[in-house]
């Protein structure tokens, strides 16, 4: 898929789970539970030391399912970005904008979603060719901030991460968010090995999302 097609798929999904964990088993099982629950866009964070292996295994398992998108998160440099792309990541997410990461992603035709807070950061990312930016941390900025950003930049596609909960999904979408990044609740359950509950939670999120359409 082209970068624009991947971005379109993310918009269609509307939800991305940020999967952390401390090892391959926990990260992989968390992602699989989310996919089984209906959230098919996964962001494997590089805070997990086995992120490369998780991305590779998930990409292999779901290579024939075009609805599943496996991306990489917490990518801080171009070396990590290339490793993630070689492992099979279909999109790259970072907590801040890094021009070298942007260059690597464009070189390999992989979408780059950098973390931004200010209008300057967002416009810099757009000028660098990013089709979507991550607004982080959402818990600090709030829904009104998205509305304010959409004033001068009505065309910008925003993924909000941080502060998204099951009871405020509609508020974020109504404020103008394109995609919601979730993970805290899922990763807490993963530390307890409650993967069945993770699947149920994912299903609950998709139900709320579907009601918004």
Key terms:
213 residues, eight-stranded parallel sheet, alpha/beta, globular
Protein model, in words:
There is one protein chain. The mean pLDDT is 96. This protein starts with a helix and ends with a helix. The protein has an 8-stranded parallel beta sheet with strand order 3-2-1-8-7-6-5-4, sandwiched between helices. It has 213 residues and is α/β, with parallel strands linked by helices. Helix content is 51%, strand content 16%. 47% of the residues are buried. It has helices at 3-13, 24-36, 51-61, 78-87, 99-107, 119-127, 138-141, 143-150, 169-175, 184-191, 195-212, and strands at residues 15-19, 41-45, 69-73, 92-94, 112-116, 133-135, 158-161, 179-182. It has one domain: Aldolase class I (TIM Barrel), CATH 3.20.20.
List the helices and strands and how they pair.
Layout lengths: L2 H11 L1 E5 L4 H13 L4 E5 L5 H11 L7 E5 L4 H10 L4 E3 L4 H9 L4 E5 L2 H9 L5 E3 L2 H4 L1 H8 L7 E4 L7 H7 L3 E4 L1 H8 L3 H18 L1
Helix pairs in contact: 2-3, 2-10, 2-11, 4-5, 10-11
């Amino acid at each position: 898929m082209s970068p624009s097609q991947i971005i379109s798929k993310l918009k269609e999904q509307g939800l991305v789970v940020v999967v952390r964990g401390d090892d391959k088993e926990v990260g992989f099982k968390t992602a699989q539970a989310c996919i089984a629950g209906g959230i098919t866009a996964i962001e494997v964070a590089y805070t997990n030391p086995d992120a490369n292996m998780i991305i590779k295994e998930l990409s292999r398992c779901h290579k024939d399912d075009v609805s599943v998108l496996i991306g990489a998160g917490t990518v801080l440099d171009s070396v990590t970005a290339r490793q993630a792309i070689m492992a099979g990541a279909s999109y790259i997410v970072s907590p801040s904008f890094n021009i070298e990461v942007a260059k690597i992603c464009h070189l390999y035709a992989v979408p780059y979603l950098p973390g931004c807070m200010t209008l300057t950061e967002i416009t810099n990312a757009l000028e660098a060719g990013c089709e979507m930016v991550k607004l982080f941390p959402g818990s600090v900025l709030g829904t009104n901030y998205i509305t304010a950003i959409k004033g001068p930049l009505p065309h910008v596609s925003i993924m909000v991460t941080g502060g998204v909960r099951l009871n405020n999904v509609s508020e974020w979408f109504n404020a103008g968010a394109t995609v919601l990044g979730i993970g805290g609740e899922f990763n807490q359950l993963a530390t307890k090995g409650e993967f069945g509950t993770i699947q149920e939670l994912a299903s609950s999120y998709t139900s709320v999302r579907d009601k918004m359409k």
